[in-house]
């Protein structure tokens, strides 16, 4: 068994450390659990949103967010977030430096792309980021997923990986935080129906690996 742990977008932009961006409650507290699950893995992957400030989906205030866009690869409006060079782009406290990861995926660098999952640059899932192919070359068969947020990028990344039919995918809820209880519950149901193993914590993850 070759195991990879994927830290999905564990960035300050999605935490109370950046209240003017897209804060997820307790988003800055998952570092220890991400490190714990990485201890079960042979390889560790980091994904990071990396958005330009002039992206087509940017709106000035939070009350204008989540409006539908007539754009093939940016479906909703969001406030500016995860801009390289800003505090929000940085990873949360407690995680290794970027250079200590085995592989890194930067998402949404183009101004007209706003992907949620880490496997494709576009919402139509035609343009690969190379993550799936990298995992294949490393002969990975089991993937542990955590990060931010459960109901968006974590869910989409896990579903994309599961859809390949090549990996056993586990999501560790203790290593995630979500936007709202109802959408997290919906995401968990969707992932389970797809065949993803949803675990409450790293202890449950370890049991699934034994």
Description:
- With 210 residues, this protein is an alpha/beta fold.
- The chain has one domain: Isochorismatase-like (Rossmann fold), CATH 3.40.50.850.
- 24% of the residues lie in helices and 20% in strands.
- It contains five helices and eight strands, in the order E-H-E-E-E-E-H-E-H-E-H-E-H.
- It has helices spanning 31-38, 131-137, 150-163, 181-193, 202-209; strands spanning 3-8, 43-49, 58-59, 78-79, 103-107, 142-148, 168-177, 197-199.
- The strands form two sheets. Strands 5-2-1-6-7-8 form a six-stranded parallel beta sheet, sandwiched between helices. The protein has a two-stranded parallel sheet with strand order 3-4.
- Helix 4 links the parallel strand 7 (168-177) and strand 8.
- The radius of gyration is 16 Å and the shape is globular.
- The N and C termini lie close together (11 Å).
- It comes from Photobacterium lutimaris.
- It holds the Pfam family Isochorismatase.
Task: From the structure above, extract its key features.
two-stranded parallel ribbon, single chain, 210 residues, 8 strands, alpha/beta, Rossmann fold, 6-stranded parallel beta sheet
Question: Topology of this protein?
Answer:
Elements: E1 3-8, H1 31-38, E2 43-49, E3 58-59, E4 78-79, E5 103-107, H2 131-137, E6 142-148, H3 150-163, E7 168-177, H4 181-193, E8 197-199, H5 202-209
Parallel strand pairs: 1-2, 1-6, 2-5, 3-4, 6-7, 7-8
Helix pairs in contact: 3-4
């Amino acid at each position: 068994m070759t195991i990879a742990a994927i830290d999905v977008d564990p960035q300050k932009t999605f935490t109370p450390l950046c209240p003017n961006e897209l804060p997820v409650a307790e988003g800055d507290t998952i570092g220890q659990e991400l490190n714990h699950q990485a201890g079960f893995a042979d390889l560790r992957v980091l994904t990071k949103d990396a958005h330009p400030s002039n992206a087509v989906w940017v709106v000035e205030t939070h009350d204008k967010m989540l409006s539908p866009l007539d754009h093939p690869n940016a479906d909703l409006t969001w406030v500016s977030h995860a801009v390289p060079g800003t505090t929000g782009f940085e990873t949360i406290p407690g995680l290794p430096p970027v250079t200590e990861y085995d592989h890194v995926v930067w998402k949404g660098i183009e101004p007209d792309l706003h992907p949620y999952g880490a496997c494709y640059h576009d919402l139509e899932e035609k343009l690969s980021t190379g993550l799936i192919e990298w995992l294949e070359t490393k002969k990975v068969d089991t993937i542990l997923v955590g990060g931010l947020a459960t109901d968006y990028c974590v869910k989409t990344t896990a579903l994309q990986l599961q859809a390949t039919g090549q990996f056993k995918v586990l999501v560790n809820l203790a290593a995630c935080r979500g936007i709202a209880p109802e959408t997290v519950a919906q995401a968990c149901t969707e992932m389970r129906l797809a065949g993803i193993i949803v675990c409450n914590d790293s202890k449950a993850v370890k049991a699934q690996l034994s």
